[in-house]
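stage 2 :: seqdesign
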């Protein structure tokens, strides 16, 4: 399914090697989870960006995807996925589908991903792109991700790709006991990637590192 496009662009010839270099870079930055590294090695990131940017798809950098949004930096995708999947988490909620790259990585490692996106064009593009890639275990919805989606709750894991000043109560309610949230908290220049675990005795919070994400967009009103 991907080979026809690769055959036309010639990207397929080099992308395996350039992807390998990216994976080595992620390892040198401290990413250890082999399943995460393997799934990023296997997924062609150039199919998630505009063709004009495809040659830069294996740089460890965020790239524009239109509508003022970006595909997350590969290191951040790896870091968040590694932090979320410390154990099997079958039912996962993703906030901020964007181009769907992180979604596809999660879909390869979880039973089901529910992915919410506030910008309708990005939502539709990502849904169609993952369909074309043969990914079938994702529920895509257009809407405010920070309200969650009760229909598929409780979630074993929740991952957010837009920064929020705090953890919305809805997300805590939709998280299973034993569940984990990975999200950036704060705003502007002061953002920290945090891990929140829901235990029988309450919530625990662990800070991972300073990050920079796009701000959370308001709900549909
Ligand atoms: N992992 C994605 C990240 C995209 S950037 C990727 O690599 O492509 C963050 C995304 O969150 C953007 O697509 C943005 O539109 C979306 N977003 C921002 N606020 C949101 C909200 N309230 N609900 C759902 N999605 C939101």
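stage 2 :: out
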């Amino acid at each position: 399914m991907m080979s026809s496009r690769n055959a036309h662009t010639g990207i397929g010839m080099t992308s395996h090697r350039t992807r390998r270099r990216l994976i080595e870079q992620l390892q040198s930055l401290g990413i250890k989870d082999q399943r995460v590294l393997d799934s990023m090695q296997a997924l062609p990131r150039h199919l998630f960006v505009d063709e004009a940017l495809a040659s830069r798809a294996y740089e460890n950098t965020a790239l524009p995807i239109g509508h003022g949004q970006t595909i997350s930096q590969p290191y951040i995708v790896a870091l968040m996925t590694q932090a979320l999947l410390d154990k099997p988490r079958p039912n996962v909620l993703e906030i901020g589908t964007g181009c769907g790259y992180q979604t596809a990585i999660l879909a390869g490692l979880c039973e089901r991903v529910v992915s919410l996106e506030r910008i309708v064009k990005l939502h539709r593009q990502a849904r169609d792109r993952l369909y074309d890639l043969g990914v079938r275990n994702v529920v895509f919805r257009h809407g405010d991700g920070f309200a969650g989606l009760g229909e598929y709750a409780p979630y074993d894991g929740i991952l957010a790709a837009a920064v929020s000043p705090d953890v919305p109560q809805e997300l805590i309610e939709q998280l299973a006991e034993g569940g984990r949230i990975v999200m950036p908290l704060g705003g502007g220049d002061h953002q920290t990637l945090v891990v929140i675990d829901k235990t029988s005795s309450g919530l625990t919070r662990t800070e991972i590192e300073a990050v920079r994400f796009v701000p959370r967009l308001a709900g549909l009103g």
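stage 3 :: structure notes
- Residues 64-210 form a domain with the Rossmann fold fold (CATH 3.40.50.150).
- The longest strand covers residues 175-187.
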